[in-house]
Specification:
The chain is of the alpha/beta class. The chain folds into two domains: about 5-165, Rossmann fold, CATH 3.40.50.720; about 175-265, Orthogonal Bundle (ProC C-terminal domain-like fold). The protein contains 13 helices and eight strands. The chain has helices at about 15-25, 40-50, 60, 75-85, 85-90, 100-110, 140-150, 165-175, 175-190, 195-220, 220-230, 235-245, 250-265; strands at about 5-10, 35, 55, 65-70, 90-95, 115-120, 130-135, 155-160. Strands 3-2-1-4-5-6-7-8 form an eight-stranded mixed sheet, with helices on both faces. The longest helix is centred in the last third of the chain and has 22 residues, at about 195-220. It is elongated and about 70 Å long. The two termini are about 35 Å apart. The mean pLDDT is about 95.
């Protein structure tokens, strides 16, 4: 369904780049992609690296069959108003903006549009992203399927009700940052106990990667897998007990709560 459709990106940041990389790897032609990006250096990078068309004018991207909104939530109203109703009428708008509802985008467009919201995350840069999708009131199942095809090329996808998108943002959208902080802390702990930094960092990152892969491929609950490496009176239970004393779980839950609340706040602006 992607073949033969032109795709216009408004915004050429890291997430837009990840999507473009996945599209090209999935067989989409660079000739079918145009990126509107205000920063000249970034435009040239995308053109040279991926062979896509670039422009400083958002109207160039708005001329495509499908428009991907990859801008900061705070500027979406100005961007859509600047395009005008004629450019947007009848278009499918795929938004990766945190917190901005489909209804808000429809209103800001000032024209009959179909909106599918997507919350991807930064591992999409290595084609290992987690993306949640929801469709607006006027979007069709075909629109949702087309969007899912796009984001399946950069990782795995799931479909949720739009009311859950703030929670998705707090969990998987912001989640990589929590994991990076965990890897950094795990590496620091290794250094504290005598390991060279390079060795500690590699062990920490591979441990997180392997544990996540085991959860996904074994289909077992994380608690079951945890039990399998927790021997009575052993090292692991001693470490887990320390994490519990320090409020590890509660801290993570609070982080997701805070990010979810912030996403909802952005959507009200």
């Amino acid at each position: 369904m992607l073949t033969g459709r032109s795709l216009g990106f408004i915004g050429g940041g890291n997430m837009a780049e990840a999507i473009i990389r996945g599209l090209l790897a999935g067989g989409v032609s660079a000739a079918d992609i145009v990126v509107a990006e205000p920063i000249a250096g970034r435009r040239e990078f995308l053109r040279e690296r991926y062979g896509v068309s670039v422009s400083a004018d958002n109207a160039a991207a708005a001329g495509a069959d499908v428009i991907i909104l990859a801008v900061k939530p705070q500027v979406h109203q100005a961007v859509l108003a600047g395009l005008g109703t004629a450019a947007l009428t009848g278009k499918l708008l795929i938004s990766i903006m945190a917190g901005v509802t489909a209804h808000t985008i429809e209103n800001a467009a000032g024209a009959p549009v179909r909106v599918v919201r997507v919350m991807p995350n930064t591992p999409a840069l290595v084609l290992a992203g987690a993306s949640a999708l929801s469709k607006g009131a006027t979007a069709s199942d075909e629109d949702l399927d087309l969007t899912r095809q796009m984001f399946d090329l950069i990782g795995s996808t799931c479909v949720v009700d739009e009311k859950l998108m703030d929670a998705v943002t707090g969990l998987s959208g912001s989640g990589p940052a929590y994991v990076f902080a965990f890897i950094e802390a795990l590496s620091d702990a290794g250094v504290k106990n005598g390991l060279p930094r390079e060795t500690a960092s590699r062990l920490a990152a591979q441990t997180v990667f392997g544990a996540a892969k085991l959860v996904l491929e074994s289909s077992e609950h994380p608690a079951v897998l945890r039990e399998k490496v927790t021997s009575p009176g052993g090292t692991t239970i001693a470490g887990l007990a320390s994490l519990e004393r320090d409020g590890f779980r509660g801290a993570l839950i609070n982080a997701v709560d805070a990010a979810t609340a912030r996403s909802a706040e952005l959507g009200k602006r």
